[in-house]
Specification:
- By secondary structure, the protein is α/β, with parallel strands linked by helices.
- It is 44% helix and 15% strand.
- The strands form 10 sheets. It has an 8-stranded mixed beta sheet with strand order 7-6-8-9-10-15-16-17, with helices on both faces. It has a 5-stranded parallel beta sheet with strand order 2-1-3-4-5. A 5-stranded mixed beta sheet has the order 29-28-30-25-31, with helices on one face.
- The longest helix has 35 residues.
- It is elongated, with a radius of gyration of 49 Å.
Length: 938
């Protein structure tokens, strides 16, 4: 199909014959000149600026021998008179038929989409700085090269601003062409990444009349969102803003965000008239950011001289399009310079397919394929230079590196820059180039903009959403309950509702800064409680615009709608019948569990034994016959329970152990007393059901409130079989079912939300909550997904909670006395070992440490004071040594020390006597006569 169109286009040029003098066929590697074409609508304000910029750039390059050497650029200007129609194709073919090596243009994305197909066929690079449609960067158009910022970045900047001001929905007004549709498509994707969306699209034909614009903006005014993004051209966009001004859409509460077309309009036609400026007051717009540099200042200063005498059709202020047009020529020139220095030739050849279709009367030889087009494209993408627009280089995806925009606010008779956006660091109040040397920081706290003057001359950030003033009432579905009517109920013979939920909703709506027209619509037949899940589903079906009532926030429902902040907590609990338990003769054993009693008794005996061991060798109170010592241990240890022990402790270790043990006894006594008091004075209730766990293991039927989410939860999450569940409508029916019990056709337990149960138990003392609350839910008001009203009402509910109104509403409808004030208690809170194991651990460690120290001290004394025993037993058996040691331990320490001292004295006396005796004997030997010694020797 494309080939057929191509042939038709060529036939339209059958009477055209172009010379082929652009580049000679002599295969010279350094041609004298190179043809480049410019396809633009020069009769527009942007086109006039582009023409001046391109001609200036070609002149500067041709006069600079450092670029292209002796080769000159030859410029062919082609007017794109119908820059989005059929003639644009013919005009592009006219340029390509002159052996053009590259074309600068076209002006619009619509034209670029069409002639890019021709560029693909003829391998002619197409460089455009104004066709910013993101889809032109696709692999479908390898010869289309964008020399300005892709609109994908502009839309990212707008999405970041929307998110920065906490708006969630926007309306888009755009031209219904390739440029408009594809740009808005990119915006939708970027908004979705930030959990925002486009709530209403207002497409218009690019040549829409004022009446068409008015009709479309009237529809926009009836929508809820007040954040409007305008994406169009410089010729059509100002008309939209003018109509919006006349319709009162430039007042307080509106937000207008215009794409780069508006800054071009302001820059080129500046100064604007007071009427034109009045039409755009408070608008936020974007401008492609060009860093300040010496080259930029020089070019700006030249612009006045360049445009002198060329302003006959209006002012020609310098816009970013003019600067990017100037740099585009330089990019192409540098790429061609590299291309030629590589030794490449510029050659053209016939397309065999075109030759086959050629007729006698057609002159199609002029349209040829640029053989080195692919290589030239690679050289263009490889350019790395610093131009008037700043550093210029491409990223691997074919986009310019470091895209950035200035964020402009129209104020008074001029504009004010409120910040920047860059793909590197997001929103900032400093130029992006100062941030490139730092690590990227896209944190919420780092995203900043200066104060904005919004439409209506206010600095307060608009909420971005209002309730539509189209006379439509908000249809709010309200469940028509037959039980627990304190929460929500319809006033008889009226369309009004009352109850706790209704009062909370009305109080929250009264706090909103805007009026919300609504009407309550009853949901249900009045004979049974309706399903709140089905009520929520009807919101998604469009039957209701919201739902108010005792609606529990569950996972299933949050997938369908948005809920407000919960205004009350209400998890599922189990209610069962209970019976009173009277105290008995053995009630005094109840405070402790058997294990607690056992461990406590063991520690009483253990501590007594430890204290006896530590005191036995020092304290006469712990000595005597074996029977007396056993009695002493038992008496001492159990008397500590009442702090009535008479025996004194004299050892340091014994006092240490006793101090720790008395502290443990104090805690045990206090806990026992408190628990026993509670058991004997507070009414005790008992039930065979202890909570949801015991219900799961039983087979008895279970009741639930009809219409409640409890049914699905018990089946899907808990695993209770559906046959066991019995729907109950009213509190009276529930009470009867519980009284009958499962054996008489009733239920074993009743499961419902705590809010209902508290009301149910307020006047029914024979039932109580058993076990713990096994879900954590809350009640909220339901709205369609992404409804701003849900967010505003959530804020209002929090305010009600903070100022105490929410509690006052609760007390008005739900506060009651009766059974809850009687102190009834289910079961016996017995004290178990788990609560005291830390105390016992400390006491046990103290006993062990004291015994260890005592053993070490005793062994040292044994070695020191009983050397004779050690010598005598050293050759005996182990059992004899142990008996000797135990006998030593059993002796009183004073006796051991005394005996040891006496033995020591005896040893000293004995050694003295021995020494004297041996001395006397020695003297006698030496005093004998020598004759006697001789005789004895003989």
């Amino acid at each position: 199909m494309v080939r057929v169109w191509f042939v038709l286009l060529l036939m339209a040029l059958s009477n055209l014959w172009f010379s082929s003098a652009a580049v000679g066929s002599d295969n010279s590697t350094v041609p004298e000149f190179l043809n480049i074409g410019v396809l633009y609508s020069f009769n527009t304000s942007v086109g006039r600026i582009v023409k001046i910029a391109v001609e200036t750039a070609v002149g500067d390059i041709n006069s600079d021998s450092s670029i292209l050497g002796k080769t000159k650029l030859k410029l062919s200007m082609q007017e794109d008179s119908k820059y989005r129609g059929f003639l644009s194709i013919a005009e592009a073919l006219q340029l390509m038929a002159t052996h053009t090596v590259a074309i600068i243009g076209p002006q619009t994305s619509t034209t670029a989409h069409v002639i890019s197909h021709i560029a693909n066929e003829l391998h002619v690079p197409l460089l455009s700085f104004s066709a910013t449609d993101p889809t032109l960067s696709s692999l479908q158009f390898p010869f289309f090269i964008r020399t300005a910022f892709n609109d994908i970045f502009q839309m990212t900047a707008i999405a970041d601003m929307v998110s920065h001001y906490d708006w969630r929905e926007v309306i888009v007004v755009y031209g219904d062409d390739d440029h408009g549709r594809n740009g808005i498509g990119a915006l939708a994707d970027k908004l979705a990444e930030r959990r925002c969306k486009i709530s209403f699209k207002a497409p218009m034909t690019p040549d829409a009349k004022r009446e068409e614009i008015t009709d479309m903006l009237v529809q926009v005014a009836l929508a809820e969102s007040r954040v409007i993004v305008l994406h169009t051209s410089t010729t059509w966009g100002p008309k939209v803003l003018s109509v919006a001004k006349s319709l009162g859409m430039m007042q307080n509460g509106y937000v207008w965000i215009a794409t780069t077309f508006l800054t071009s309009y302001i820059d080129i036609d500046s100064p604007l008239s007071s009427e034109e400026m009045d039409n755009i007051q408070g608008v936020i717009t974007l401008r492609m950011h060009i860093p300040d540099s010496k080259l930029k200042r020089s070019f700006v200063s030249r612009w006045t001289n360049l445009t002198r005498g060329k302003e006959g059709n209006g002012p020609l202020g310098l816009s970013t399009y003019g600067i990017f047009a100037y740099d585009t020529v330089y990019v192409l020139a540098r790429a061609l310079d590299t291309f030629l220095k590589q030794g490449n030739q510029i050659t053209f050849s016939h397309d065999p397919k075109i030759s086959e279709l050629r007729g006698d009367s057609l002159h199609l030889d002029a349209v040829k394929i640029f053989n080195e087009g692919n290589l030239l494209c690679k050289n263009i993408y490889a350019v790395n230079m610093t131009g008037v627009t700043g550093p210029f280089r491409y990223t691997p995806d074919g986009n310019l590196a470091n895209p950035a925009y200035e964020i402009i606010n129209v104020i008074g008779t001029g504009t004010r820059r409120i910040g920047y956006w860059s793909n590197y660091s997001g929103l900032s109040v400093v130029p992006p180039e100062t941030l490139y040397s730092k690590p990227p920081n896209r944190s919420y706290e780092n995203q900043k903009l200066l104060t904005v003057f919004w439409p209506g001359e206010t600095t307060q950030t608009p909420r971005g959403w209002v309730f539509p003033s189209n006379g439509k009432l908000l249809r709010i579905g309200v469940p028509k309950r037959v039980s627990y009517r304190e929460f929500v109920s319809q006033v008889q013979s009226t369309d009004m509702f009352k109850g706790f939920c209704i009062d909370v909703f009305l109080s929250a709506v009264n706090l909103l800064p805007y009026a919300v027209p609504y009407k309550f619509v009853p949901y249900g037949d009045g004979l049974s409680n309706p399903s709140n899940t089905e009520l929520v589903r009807l919101i998604t079906a469009g039957v209701f615009d919201a739902a108010v009532g005792d609606i529990t926030i569950t996972t299933e429902r949050t997938k369908m709608v948005d809920f407000t902040q919960p205004y009350t907590e209400s998890g599922l609990v189990v209610v069962a019948s209970v019976k009173k338990t009277d105290s008995n003769a053995w009630a005094f054993l109840t405070p402790f569990t058997p294990m607690m009693w056992t461990v406590t008794a063991i520690f009483f005996l253990l501590v007594g034994a430890v204290v006896w061991i530590l005191e036995h060798r020092l304290n006469d109170d712990f000595r005597g016959p074996p029977k007396k010592q056993v009695a002493t241990i038992l008496w001492f240890t159990f008397s500590t329970m009442f702090f009535a022990h008479r025996e004194n402790t004299v050892s340091t270790l014994g006092r240490f152990v006793l101090l720790i043990w008395l502290f443990v006894v104090l805690i045990i006594n206090s806990s026992y007393t408190a628990s026993l008091t509670s058991i004997l004075t507070v009414q005790q209730l008992s039930s065979p059901i202890k909570g949801i766990e015991s219900l799961v293991n039983m087979k008895e039927p279970i009741g639930y409130l009809q219409g409640s989410f409890a049914r699905s939860y018990l089946i899907d999450e808990i695993g209770i079989h559906e046959s066991r569940l019995v729907p109950l409508k009213t509190p009276e029916e529930t009470a009867k079912a519980l009284e009958k019990g499962p054996q008489n056709g009733g239920v074993a337990a009743y499961i419902n939300e705590r809010a209902y149960i508290e009301l149910f138990l307020s006047s029914r003392c024979d039932f109580t909550i058993v076990g713990q609350e096994f879900t954590k839910n809350g009640w909220g008001f339901a709205f369609p997904p992404d409804s701003p009203l849900a967010v505003d009402l959530s804020t209002a509910i929090l305010e009600l909670a903070e100022n105490g109104d929410l509690q006052r509403i609760h007390d008005k409808w739900l506060l009651s006395s009766a059974c809850r004030l009687q102190g009834a208690k289910l079961g016996v809170d017995r004290l178990n070992l788990k609560s005291f194991w830390g105390l016992y651990l400390v006491c046990g460690l103290a006993c062990f440490l004291a015994l260890l120290i005592y053993l070490i001290q005793t062994l040292r004394q044994y070695k020191k004071h009983s050397p004779d025993e050690l010598e005598s037993t050293g050759q005996g058996s182990g059992s004899s040594r142990l008996r000797t040691f135990l006998s030593f331990v059993d002796e009183k320490e004073e006796i051991v020390k005394s005996r040891s001292k006496r033995r020591q004295m005896e040893r000293i006396s004995y050694r003295s006597t021995s020494e004297v005796g041996s001395s006397i004997v020695s003297n006698k030997d030496f005093s004998q006569p020598s004759s006697n010694r001789i005789e004895s020797e003989v």
